[in-house]
Amino acid sequence: MSIQMDQEVTNYFRERIEKAKVTFERAVDCKHTEFDDLYPYMSEHPQFFWYKRYVAWQELLTVSQMAGELGLDWTPQFTAQQVEFVKDKVLEAKVLDNWYPEQDK
User: Fold this and answer.
1) Are 65 and 29 in contact (CB under 8 A)?
2) Is 105's pLDDT higher than 60?
3) How far apart are CA 83 and CA 50, in angstroms?
4) pTM score of the predicted model
5) Would you list the DSSP string of 15-37?
6) Per-residue DSSP letters for the chain?
């Protein structure tokens, strides 16, 4: 790859990681995401919010894994604890409860 192409790929993944992180955080906070537009009739069902979080989490995992496979460092946009959560891959209550650093709560 050329230097230009390397930089374009790096920038692309930085943007995708940031977008996936924002989408996940909006899902954690029960705010509107693109997923709501896909399934507007589902928002009345209690399990919708869990499903929405899992979809956003999977996007974050996928993009970070692809970046890692390409040798790109996806971690600068995350706290150390968030990096560990993503590396552990399992979306569980402790991830949702502790995603934000203490000062952000």
Assistant:
1) no
2) no
3) 21
4) 0.86
5) HHHHHHHHHHHHHHTT---HHHH
6) --HHHHHHHHHHHHHHHHHHHHHHHHHHTT---HHHHH-GGGGGSTHHHHHHHHHHHHHHHHHHHHHHHTT---GGGS-HHHHHHHHH----HHHHHHSS-GGG-
